[in-house]
Write a structure and sequence with these properties.
The protein is of the alpha+beta class. Among the domains are: about 230 residues, no CATH class; about 110 residues, no CATH class. It has 30 helices and eleven strands. The chain is rod-shaped.
Length: about 650
């Protein structure tokens, strides 16, 4: 129930206020009502009924006036009129169900009767409408279109028409246009369905007027073109569809008094309704609407009513399910326009993650594949690092590596969630370059775990990655040597083995803690350590005792050559002498078979004792003499040679040289 005030003006020794339910306190507004309620000198064409309707706002008093004026033929004085004015408070304009119903509230007074009923506030009650209740408008559609454009300020000047024969229909038609306009437009528009001259309000020409004296002003061109949004509104006005007008006024806060916003809301409505039957699916139309709204309201604090409605799940489910909704929100240029907190998007996203988790990965994938992810979509992909489970990350790597790679670039923390253990070597090798990428690698912290996986799976890696692994992994040398020493079938990857070079102190520290080593560890150490370095010499021969456990293994000649040369760092040390003994027999045997190889001989040649010139060719003799001489210098007893090698003949030869 809304309250409508009323005023009655007429002749009483001059045109004046005769009765009213309200007293306007603003003098200017009182003067405006007094002026516009007086006769406009309108005479109906063809001698018809000369009543007319005038409507205008009273800005200071906060009322919108809709007034009907009748010529008072019964008065002796010519030019007298009765005017019944309805004053609708601004704050209820959006609530009016149908302005056309106000016509039934007008009552022409009779001279001599009481005016008491005009002194009471009218209690107006809205009604609900169905299509059966609609009353079509009976005026030229072109006139209605011109009025609509004028009221929306689409045109930059008032519109003027010739007075119509059936003035009642004109007033009814204009009230029908008002049904489709939000309050902010109504508060500024003014019109009159019958006047002999151009009427004004506070010095400004009324927005729309129907003039009986055609020479008083040129009529407006009514051959206006209609855009789609105008057609949608005019169709509803012409068929008397008040429900559509109420729907538009739901968004009055978004529209304000801007025709651009009005058009955007109407486009939204006819697109959702599929009014023009353009053959687009519900999802496609919903995407169109999101773009229309974002384009019209690019700032987050604009258009909040329509934005909240579109984000509302119950509403949007009519057009697209959650999956398609979020794909649209993430890939259309709407992220800057929608405030995710204020529109409820945050809570809706949480609901999607909790209730429709199985679609989460697919949604991320489609956002990525679109190539059009907006700021919100990119944010969701970044956030996925903290949302995806290890199992989901595994599925992503195996089934959609492009998505994984994209997320890593957006949020390198994804590398720290990589489930290395369940990946194939190929998958690991594909991911490893990302760790070296300057855009992502600095974030990766799982070096220890990665190194263990690389060793366990035997993944082939580049020298660059091997250097990085050793630089970033805690105690990398120990980890590598422990792993290889744990099983005789394991070996040191070539690129990783290269990283042991320069890690001599760490290698020797590790070696000193072991009692035994495998052949492959021996090879790795021999390849990495310079036996003549100061670090090696300073650590002593005892460090190398684990090599003695390999005495009866069939090692590569390079190992024996290394140990032979190594032992000379400590000429008289017992452990060093044992290392020499271990290496002597295999080297001597290989040399006797001419299988030692030049590089291995070159390795030990500097330590050889000199022989007579005629024996210079005999490298085996040089080796035997070197061993004997060194043992003597070390103070050993000749008996040590009795079982010095497995070959008795060789042992006897050594003793003869003693």
């Amino acid at each position: 129930m809304m309250k409508i005030e009323q005023l009655l003006h007429g002749y009483d020794n001059g045109h004046r206020l005769l009765a009213g339910s309200v007293l306007l306190k603003n003098n200017a507004d009182m003067d405006a009502v007094a002026t516009l309620s007086d006769w406009s000198e309108y005479v109906a064409p063809g001698g018809g009924d000369s009543c007319y309707v005038t409507a205008y706002p009273l800005q200071e008093s906060g009322y919108y006036v809709i007034a009907k004026t009748w010529y008072a033929d019964e008065m002796k004085r010519p030019g007298c009129v009765w005017t019944h004015s309805l004053l609708v408070p601004f704050d209820v304009l959006n609530q009016v169900d149908d302005f056309r119903r106000f016509s039934s509230l007008f009552k022409r007074p009779l001279n001599g009767e009481s005016f008491d009923e005009y002194s009471h506030t009218i209690a107006y009650e809205n009604k609900n409408y169905s299509a059966d209740d609609y009353r079509p408008v009976s005026v030229d559609r072109r006139i209605e279109a011109s009025v609509l454009q004028a009221f929306l300020n689409v045109v930059d000047k008032p519109v003027v028409f010739e007075a119509q024969k059936d003035n009642e229909k004109v007033g009814d038609a204009i009230l029908g246009v008002m049904n489709s306009l939000p309050r902010a437009f109504l508060q500024r528009l003014s019109w009159c369905t019958g006047t002999a001259y151009m009427r004004k309000l506070n010095g400004r020409t009324l927005t729309c007027q129907f003039v009986s004296r055609t020479n008083s002003s040129g009529s407006s061109d009514i051959s206006v073109s209609e855009e789609k949004w105008q057609t949608y509104v005019l169709d509803a006005i012409m068929r008397g569809d008040v429900n559509q007008g109420q729907l538009i006024r739901m968004f009055s806060d978004d529209i304000a008094d801007d025709a651009k916003y009005y058009a955007a809301i109407v486009r939204t409505l006819y697109t959702l309704e599929d009014y023009f039957k353009e053959g687009r699916s519900n999802e496609e139309r919903f995407r169109d609407v999101l773009e229309v709204v974002a384009g019209a309201y690019p700032y987050k604090d604009e258009g909040m009513v329509i934005k909240k409605l579109l984000v509302n799940k119950t509403f949007s489910d009519r057009y697209c399910k959650n999956y398609a909704f979020f794909l649209s929100v993430a890939t259309l240029p709407v992220d800057e326009a929608f405030d995710v907190a204020e529109t409820g998007l945050v809570e809706r996203w949480k609901g999607f993650l909790s209730r429709e988790r199985k679609q989460y990965l697919s949604l991320l994938s489609d956002i990525c594949k679109s190539g059009k992810a907006n700021g919100w979509g990119i944010e969701k992909m970044k956030e996925s690092v903290g949302v995806l489970s290890s199992e989901e990350v595994t599925v992503m790597i195996k089934n959609d590596f492009h998505l994984f790679n994209t997320i890593v670039l957006l949020n390198p923390e994804m590398l720290n969630k990589t489930p290395w253990l369940v990946l194939t070597n190929h998958e690991i090798e594909t991911i490893l370059p990302m760790i070296l990428d300057g855009r992502t690698g600095n974030v990766f912290v799982g070096w220890d775990r990665l190194f263990a996986i690389l060793l366990e799976k035997g993944v082939e890696i580049s020298s660059e990655l091997a250097r990085e692994v050793f630089a970033r992994t805690d105690r990398a040398t120990v980890v590598l040597l422990d792993y290889v020493n744990g099983d005789t079938s394991r070996y040191v990857n070539y690129t990783l083995g290269l990283q042991l070079s320069g890690k001599t102190d760490a290698v020797l520290t590790w070696l000193s803690s072991k009692e035994t080593i495998t052949d492959n560890v021996a090879y790795a150490i021999v390849n990495a350590v310079n036996e003549r370095s100061n670090v090696v010499a300073s650590r002593g021969a005892k460090v190398w005792r684990p090599f003695l456990g390999l005495q009866f293994h069939n090692l590569h000649a390079k190992v024996y050559a290394f140990l032979f040369a190594l032992s000379f760092n400590w000429p008289n040390d017992v452990d060093a002498l044992e290392l020499m003994r271990m290496a002597f027999y295999p080297l001597h045997t290989l040399q006797s078979q001419k299988k030692m190889g030049y590089s291995n001989w070159s390795h030990i040649a500097p330590y050889m004792e000199s022989v007579m010139i005629w024996d210079e060719w005999d490298n085996c003799k040089k080796m035997r003499k070197t061993v004997v001489k060194r043992l003597k210098r070390a103070g050993a007893d000749a008996s040590v040679l009795d079982n010095y090698t497995p070959n008795n003949e060789l042992n006897a030869e050594l003793k003869r040289m003693w």
